[in-house]
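Input set for joint prediction.
Command: fold jointly, output tokens.
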Amino acid sequence: MVSRVIPVEPFDLVIFGATGDLANRKIFPGLFRRFLSGQIPDGSRMIGAARTEQSREIFQDQIRQAIRTFVKPDKQDAKQIETFIDCLHYVAIDARGDAGWPELKELIRPDVVNAFYFSVAPALFGDLAERLKTHAIAGSDARIVVEKPFGRDLASARALNKSLAEYFEEQQIYRIDHYLGKETVQNLMAVRFANILFEPIWNSQYIDHVQITVAETVGVGGRGSYYDKSGAMRDMVQNHMMQLLCMIAMEPPYHFDPDAVRDEKLKVIRALQPVPAGDIVRGQYLGEPRDDKTERMPGYLEDSENPESLTESYLAMRVNIANWRWKNTPFYLRTGKRLRARTSEIAITFKEPPHSIFDEAEGTWQPNQLVIRLQPNEGMNLKMMIKEPGPGGMRLVQVPLDMSFAEALGEGGADMPDAYERLIMDVIRGNQTLFMRGDEVEAAWAWTDPIIADWDARGDKPRPYDSGTSGPDDALMLMHRDGRRWRHIK
Ligand code: BG6
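tokens >
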């Protein structure tokens, strides 16, 4: 497969929060990989901005280290690293004061694409936006990129949208949900809208239910204080899982165009039904029993440093979409920390054929299932019934039509770009398709808020679950009572 890189014009990209974790782990290593692909044109500038007073050389050294740590060794060509490092600049800046802004203005060239990435606490978004305007740094074509969390409820998301809108047009605001940058998430649209096979049966007449699973093995240690104020609902469901659900449930947009795609996603979010408490299971992971082990896995209450915490590290729920296509086809979502395996997938289970002609197959029939594996081992698996080989009648057996994208695509598939790489280049290209629009984020919070408010009002306690399992047992019941079962997390 030939990898095609779409060239962009030279640009000036400012990363606020350039000394932070995301910048070191994802943003700069991602930019370096794009540079290696030839996508960063000569003359582009990448400018780190942060509170720390330090020289350009020290910042460049920080990024050299980040590349050494977070880029695969076979991509670490010393000469290329140095050419990339030469494009880096640094400005010490005060987000709430005036220090550093004139220096930043000096570095920004108004005649190239300007993008400003806010990799900082959301509380600073408004301050940065304001200063970019009052110091006349950002012009009418400049783009700003904001990270999640975008608010913690509808009111705060609205306030954030309002404060950004004072200085920037919606077409200039790129709200990141890094799940949309994942190759396999974009593939959901390709599978649905570039093939004729699925769309005619992609509805409640043929689909029994949909399962969306994002399971992680990591706990929240190290970021417990952030996580404890969020929980799985705010951290994963309101954004990443909502986006996955939209990709599966949306109507075909008339074009692969930012507003056409986002209009369709918005309609899905608005059609989500309120979720009754009985359709939700919340869990919290337990630690390993105390013994003499030196490396004991702590439980959620220790990781969050909040022994009284009622925050969920696991969430399973049954969601209904009130529209023609999905009426009576439930979507079961589950996500959690410290589970048995790191796996994200979407499984679409189809209904029974209307009439069976195989008497001997009685009891062996199993539903067709399309499983789209988002990570790891990205690919698709379509489970089909075929005849069991051998004489003696017509017995049926289910077999997988299994495709790994890496194998199917050869070399190009093995080296899929990281979500951030794709998204940053889309900002430079000015393509908002894979970014959330303000109304979309607000609609997602409008659905989420009453669910969380109900837990708070009742002091709902998450069920404990053992680390390394598939979550609380009650989550099994959520499906069993509907005569369905979760796929095994492995
Ligand atoms: C982040 C969440 O947005 O996504 C984390 O804050 C979570 O809690 C992460 O671990 C999962 O992302 P990925 O790309 O590893 O699936």
